[in-house]
Amino acid sequence: MCGIVGYVGLKNASEILVEGLKRLEYRGYDSSGICVAVDGALTVAKTPGRVMNLEDSIEGNPMFAAGTIGIAHTRWATHGRPTQENAHPHTSTNEKIALVHNGIIENYSTLKKFLHDKGYEFRSETDTEVLVHLISEFYGKDGCELLETAVQLALKEVTGTYGLAVISADEPDKIVVARRGSPLIVGVGSDEYIVASDASAILEHTANVVYLNDNEMGVISRSGMRTMTTDNIPINKEVQQIEWSLEQIAKGGYEHFMLKEIMEQPESIRNAITGRLDMREMQIVLGGLSDIAPQLARLRRLIITSCGTAWHAALVGEFLFEELAKLPTEVEYASEFRYRNPIIEEGTAVAVISQSGETADTLAAIREAKLKGALTLGVVNAVGSTIARETDAGVYLHAGPEIGVASTKAFTSQITVEIMMALMIARRRYMSQATMENYMRELVLIPDKIEKILEQSEHIKDIAAKYIDRENWLFLGRGYQYPIALEGALKLKEISYIHAEGLPAAEMKHGPIALINDGMPAVFIAPRCETYDKIIGNIEEIRARCGKTIVVATEGDTEIEQFADHVIYVPDAPVPLQPLLTVIPLQLLAYHAAVARGCNVDKPRNLAKSVTVE
Ligand code: G6P
């Protein structure tokens, strides 16, 4: 959940490290810290709060101006409050070793007691600090003159997850990095290396990278990198190319990343379907699934598991796979799935959906599914991420980097990929060519339809402005629109801190209707579909209790205006594709409400983009 950067080369390390931290802030921003090695001594600075505080604190410091090797960290607190003491890097008692860590040391209290009994003084409340003392316990003893050997011995004692980078004043030309369960990438430049938890901190310097796998480590100096397992077996790693450009990562002229990402959805969906919807041959080509297509056609059951917004995409998937492919589908929170000893029979596939490809619970769920012999599928955005690598087969979203903590474009790309997967399987089961072609033609039209919805941003902003003082909102939808109601409520909660509840519309009368009072906003997602008349009944129920109704409806449905206080129109589409359209106004509603309330839209309090801890 935290972000790590390391640099060794010929340039000013602290500038590169601070820039890298800024790009990683979306992984956590409770505190940050930096350490450089100069003339056989380490210099450390740490500050609570955002990276800009750290930048200010090291300005003009000659040590930071001189260092060409260093490590840095931006933290999302797990063990210990977000204070200066708890910020990384953590250093050994003699200030000779410094370490940054991402992940959790599960047996830290046992290790802490062991080290405490040996006389080590602890200066923080973190689990990480045990690691640096453990390394120094081994370092320098007989047969353990090298930092990497001490790191290996320390890691043998550790239960838990880590992505880490360590430097030593006694070997000031090297960084030792290791990974288990938390991502770590090494950028390979000329005469320089940049280590980071993800590519956005590296791209400015090089597109050539080495992805470390679990239980692998690297010893990096200006002259080269050696890679090995944490058991010290040498390994050769391939240098790969990152596809994302820096411009893709920058804000592109929008006030917030989130708005940019909302506005990018026509393009991100086009990217998801490009090369996959073959409109000449009228077939769906999902390269990552082609080898297992016959196996998919014979599936008896599909389980989709994920977290957060990706879980809502999974719920939409349940409708898609059951309706289009007639494939019995269940959806489960990854955090529940991993612990409840799920039943996996012959013919079951487990699909996971994840923007980052690093979510700890989702990763654990896939490992559980594999253990039980399921075919595992990944619907992932981050190329080369752990989930992408550990699943048997899968489909990338190609949505580009998503920086705003609240997920938007990844969500619509996840649904787009699910639609293509469902159609591909459906065609091999019960769906006629003509029906599939019809869906394909409709899917191609979706990006232009989204553009029309995005043009209504100002109208949606005006609606949001009227209700930003209301602390409780309801989001209601039926069928395919039920997960969209959940997603609309989650977006509002995440970024505006307004309490919102999403429900299947008919459930409202079984309890939540008691909440309705004068002026309470209820957002209905009511495009033209089979249950349209029923949802009109639900709207009336709210109106009768003096609630205010904001309705997302199908273009041309003027009838709805007599029931609604506000209407936001979306173009028509076949029912299974409608979620791609109806979610857009809800993203904009949440965005404008959050901005009007003065919230930090891209970095909402207490949230992190990539949750790599349980
Ligand atoms: C975090 C993010 C959410 C995201 C969820 C799952 O909670 O704040 O936006 O939906 O993790 O992340 P994933 O990367 O697996 O899609």
Q: Report helical residue fraction.
A: 25-40%
The largest β sheet comes out as: 8 strands, antiparallel
Rg result: 26 Å
Counting DSSP H or I runs of 4 or more residues, the number of helices is: 20
- Low-pLDDT stretches are none
Percentage of residues in DSSP E strands: 15-25%
Mean pLDDT: 93
Strand order of the biggest β-sheet: 3-2-4-1-10-9-11-14
Please report the total strand number as a whole number.
Answer: 26
Ligand types: 6-O-phosphono-alpha-D-glucopyranose
The SS-based structural class is alpha/beta
Give the terminus-to-terminus CA distance.
10 Å
General form: globular
Identify the notable features of this structure and list them briefly.
614 residues; eight-stranded antiparallel β-sheet; alpha/beta; binds 6-O-phosphono-alpha-D-glucopyranose; 20 helices; globular; six-stranded antiparallel β-sheet; single chain
SSE map:
Blueprint: E1 3-8, H1 13-24, E2 31-38, E3 41-48, H2 51-58, H3 62-66, E4 69-75, E5 90-91, E6 97-102, H4 108-117, H5 128-138, H6 147-156, E7 162-168, E8 175-180, E9 185-188, E10 193-196, E11 208-211, E12 216-221, E13 224-229, E14 240-241, H7 246-249, H8 257-263, H9 265-273, E15 277-278, E16 283-284, H10 293-297, E17 301-306, H11 308-325, E18 329-333, H12 334-337, E19 348-354, H13 360-371, E20 375-380, H14 386-390, E21 393-396, H15 409-429, H16 433-454, H17 457-467, E22 472-477, H18 481-496, E23 499-504, E24 521-526, H19 532-544, E25 548-554, E26 566-570, H20 579-596
Helix pairs in contact: 4-5, 5-6, 9-15, 9-16, 11-15, 11-18, 15-16, 16-20, 17-20, 18-20
6-O-phosphono-alpha-D-glucopyranose (G6P) binds next to helix 11.
